[in-house]
Amino acid sequence: MAKNFLLIKVLLLIKLLNAHFTDDWTFAKITVLTSEINYSETNKLYQNVRTKNQFECFKLCFKSNECEFLEYNENNCSFYDSLAKNNKTLNGNFWYKVAYNCFGEKIDAKNKILNSFNPTVINLNFQNICYIKPFILRNFTFLIYLLIRNNILSFLQANTFIGMDNLACLDLSNNKIDTIKSGAFNGLSKLIFLGLQSNRLKYLSTKSLSGLTLLRSLDLSNNMIEYLEKNTFDDLISLRYLTLSSNRFNYLDAEIFLKIPELIHLNLGVNNLKSMDLKFLKKLDDLYLNNNQLTNFTTNLTSIKYLYLNGNPLGYLNYSFFESNGMIPSLNFLNIHNCQLESIDKNAFIKYKNLANLIIGKNNFKTLDYKIFDEMNTTLRSVSVDRNASYITNITLLYPWIRFNLMA
């Protein structure tokens, strides 16, 4: 009887230690044969706690976005976000998060789905793919386009795309990706476009995008990201186009953009931003800040040509609204549609010497000063206003060279 009870306890403990806490992840012990880890030069410990057992240690690691690896030894539980390959990490006490299971198509050694494609383009869209085994694509050295959108991937492991030395375009949009492991994009030194929009990302580690030094366009829109580390984009020194719209940002530190000064297009629309500091983006042409919580806009930018502030609670627009930021000489397009504006000062646009297109519809003002466009007789060509506004007739007669687009 005692032996049976002991056996039951052992079986329960084994079940606990092998339990997974999401549909996709469990832990595996690190050995000399482990190939799914992106090793670093040193072990980086960030937390050490005492736990009752190994199971509790695993649970704590799963709750942390930063925990990539753990060490458990006699109730001592240590979390690491990077490991070096040495005698210590191979001593049998170290574990790492690993894919557990998924229900769908798996790209692994047994899968024949890759056999029918040409050498430069692989289209895996709408294939119900849930898993890509690391190193499995290493022989596709001449591949340029890899399309894996509209599948059910939930994670990307280290070395998933290793060996694809000439890949230029990687589209992973419309999946269920919530985890990008450090080193997931190892080997993609020539990647130019990366599409990660419409996934379930809440967090990016500082090494999620490491090594993508030639990347020019990154789309992270329509995720659930609330926060970015200051050095998230540090390796993306060639980046020109960045889309972060439709996330959950309340704040973005200015230093996030420090290492991507060549950026010319930035979309931060549909977030919860109340202020912005973009002082490091001296070459920015297009800036989308629509549908945030901005009540004013000030920044040291002189290059912006297209500015979208529509859908923000601005309230009032006067001469000094943009004056301090030095960007007026270059502005060509301004959208302040639906900004709860009560009035626009007659001198608000006096220094907009290059403004050609203005959208001011769906605001709360009843009238516009008839001199509002006097200083813009050589540049302003198009103004979008409310169709039923009482001031329309007088304004259109005064400025016959401007095309007034009437909005419903």
TrEMBL record:
Pfam families with a match to the protein in the record: LRR_8
Domain of life: Eukaryota
Alphabetical list of InterPro entries matching this protein: Leu-rich_rpt, Leu-rich_rpt_typical-subtyp, LRR_dom_sf, SLRP
Coiled coil start-end: none
SUPFAM superfamilies in UniProt: L domain-like
Keywords from the named record: Leucine-rich repeat, Repeat, Signal
Extent of the signal sequence: 1-19
UniProt-listed PROSITE patterns: LRR
Protein name per Swiss-Prot or TrEMBL: Uncharacterized protein
Organism, as annotated: Brachionus calyciflorus
